[in-house]
Write a structure and sequence with these properties.
Length: 281
C-alpha cells in the first residue's frame, strides 16, 4: 500500500506539473468573471426580476451571491468541465504512449494493472479537485459580487425549483460538491477508456466529447423523452436534484449506480485492451 501511495503521489506530481492541467481552472475563473459582468447589465437583471416577481418573490432578496453561483454552475459545469476532464483523461495513457515514456515505465518491475490503476486514480483526484474548485470559486465570486442573501434555484431540465435561506443553501452546495465529484467521474472514465487504445490523445478527447454531446442532443429532443433514463448526460445531471425542496435520494442513488456501472464497464474493457497491448512497436 505504501508503494501504491508513493506511485500515486508521483503520478499526481507529474499530472499537476503539466501546464495544460490548469487550463480548466483558468477557463472557469474567466467564465465566472465574464458571467458576473454580463449579469450587471440591466436587460439580464430585468429578465431575472420578471422570473422572480412572476412567482411572487422579491428581486433584491434572491438576486444574491448564492443564486448567481448556482446560475454559473448549472450553465457551465457540463460543457466546460466535460472539455477539460476529457482533455486530461485522454492524455493519461495515450500521451505517454505517444511520447515513449510509457514503454520505459513498463520496463520496470511494476504490473501493467497497477500502472493503469494509479493513472485512473490520478484522473479521479483531478476530477474532484476541479469540481471543488468550480463550486468554491463560484460561491466566492458570487458572494463577493452580491453578498450572501437567499438562494433561488430554477433548473427546468431537471424539474428543480426552490428557495432557501443562506444556511440551508450552503448545506445543499455541500451535497452538490460531493455528488459532482461522483457523477463527473464518468466523463474522466470515458476519456481514460479511449486513452487506453492505440490512438492519439486528441482523438481520445474528441471521441469522448462527441459521445457526450450526442448523448446530450438526444436528451434535449422532446420526442425521446421515453428513453432519457438510458442516457449518461441525464444521470450526470442528477447533481442538481440536491437543490430540490425534498431531495430525491432514491433517484440520485439510481443515477449514481447507473453511472458507476458504466464506469466499471469502461474501465474493464479499456484495461483488458491495455494489458494485452503491444508497446514495442
Amino acid at each position: 500500500m505504501n508503494g501504491l501511495g508513493k506511485q500515486l503521489g508521483l503520478e499526481l506530481l507529474k499530472l499537476y506539473g503539466r501546464k495544460r492541467t490548469y487550463i480548466g481552472f483558468g477557463a472557469f475563473l474567466f467564465v465566472e468573471v465574464l458571467l458576473l459582468s454580463l449579469l450587471q447589465m440591466r436587460p439580464a437583471q430585468r429578465a431575472f426580476a420578471r422570473l422572480l416577481e412572476t412567482n411572487g418573490f422579491g428581486f433584491e432578496e434572491y438576486f444574491s451571491g448564492l443564486t448567481l453561483a448556482f446560475l454559473i454552475m448549472t450553465n457551465t459545469i457540463f460543457f466546460l468541465s466535460s472539455l477539460y476532464l476529457a482533455l486530461v483523461a485522454g492524455d493519461m495513457v495515450a500521451k505517454e504512449a505517444e511520447d515513449g515514456t510509457l514503454r520505459m515505465l513498463l520496463c520496470r518491475p511494476v504490473s501493467r494493472f497497477r500502472v493503469l490503476m494509479v493513472k485512473y486514480l490520478a484522473c479521479l483526484v483531478y476530477t474532484a479537485s476541479l469540481m471543488v474548485f468550480i463550486v468554491a470559486t463560484s460561491l466566492l465570486a458570487g458572494v463577493a459580487y452580491k453578498g450572501m442573501g437567499g438562494l433561488f434555484v430554477y433548473a427546468p431540465l431537471q424539474g428543480v425549483f426552490g428557495l432557501y435561506e443562506a444556511g440551508p443553501a450552503l448545506v445543499r452546495y455541500g451535497f452538490a460538491v460531493i455528488l459532482l465529484c461522483v457523477v463527473t467521474a464518468t466523463v474522466s472514465t470515458l476519456g481514460f477508456f479511449f486513452s487506453c487504445f492505440n490512438m492519439k490523445p486528441a482523438a481520445a478527447t474528441i471521441l469522448t466529447l462527441s459521445l457526450l454531446f450526442m448523448d446530450m442532443v438526444v436528451q434535449l429532443i422532446p420526442y425521446f423523452e421515453s428513453i432519457k433514463g438510458w442516457l449518461l448526460t441525464y444521470h450526470i445531471g442528477c447533481w442538481v436534484l440536491v437543490f430540490q425542496p425534498q431531495i430525491p435520494w432514491w433517484r440520485i442513488g439510481e443515477s449514481v449506480v447507473y453511472l458507476w456501472g458504466f464506469n466499471l464497464s469502461f474501465l474493464a474493457v479499456g484495461g483488458l485492451y491495455f494489458l494485452r497491448r503491444d508497446f514495442k512497436s
